[in-house]
Specification:
Blueprint (H helix, E strand, L loop, with lengths): L1 H8 L4 H24 L4 H18 L1 H8 L3 E2 L3 H11 L7 E6 L6 E6 L2 E7 H6 L2 H16 L2 H19 L3 H30 L1 H15 L6 H4 L7 H9 L9
Amino acid sequence: MKFFRWLRKLPLHWHRVLLLLFGVSALLVATDELAKLLSSDSTLLSGLVFGAVIYISTMNGGPIVRFCINNEVKESLAKNGVSQLINQWSDGRRIEVSVVEMDDMRSALVGERHGYRLFISTGALTHLSPMGTAGVLAHEAGHVRRRHCERICILLGTIGASKIAFDIPPIGIIVILMTYLYLSRQREFAADATGAELVGKDAMLAAFNEHRRATNEADISSFTEVFVTHPSLHRRIAAVQAMPQRTLEQ
């Protein structure tokens, strides 16, 4: 029930989401039928097409997300400030910014042609101090500097193609899923470390603590953490605290 309540809170045009899913399904059906007409291996061809669709979609997730969300703030002074701040840490890779009207504290980075797009909620901009905002943006810049978006796109495309092309059994899917979740958590630790190198660990800790105060996020056990994409907040805090102090790069 909690998951469905969370889904309802997402600011999406659900009919557009369903339209995209229908389009992908129709493409796979058409690919399968074409393969049969050509007397080709339909599962292999469908797998390759599905993997390509996932890869291309995730590498260009910015336009897709903007097509689906229903309350992007078109003009915002905060947007300009966020854009200037994060792009100074992006190592020359352009990051466009979209501000989304949403009370929850959220930020997400996706690929976009010739660069990336950061989605950040008005709730995050409201609840975060300047230091906390710097910590959040440095974390997202860490994903860019470490090429996490590109790697996840390749991984997801490969997984999608392999599942259909080679009919991986359920136990294989479970192993792949657990591996993906583990790698996702490691990416978060890595982005935190890069963020701390960019702005200092005090800014990262401010972001964590302000997020906790605003959301009342509880710590989770090591067992529960195995099934989620992000490490527990207290483990992320401990990892940053163990780093040597860095000063803000000018």
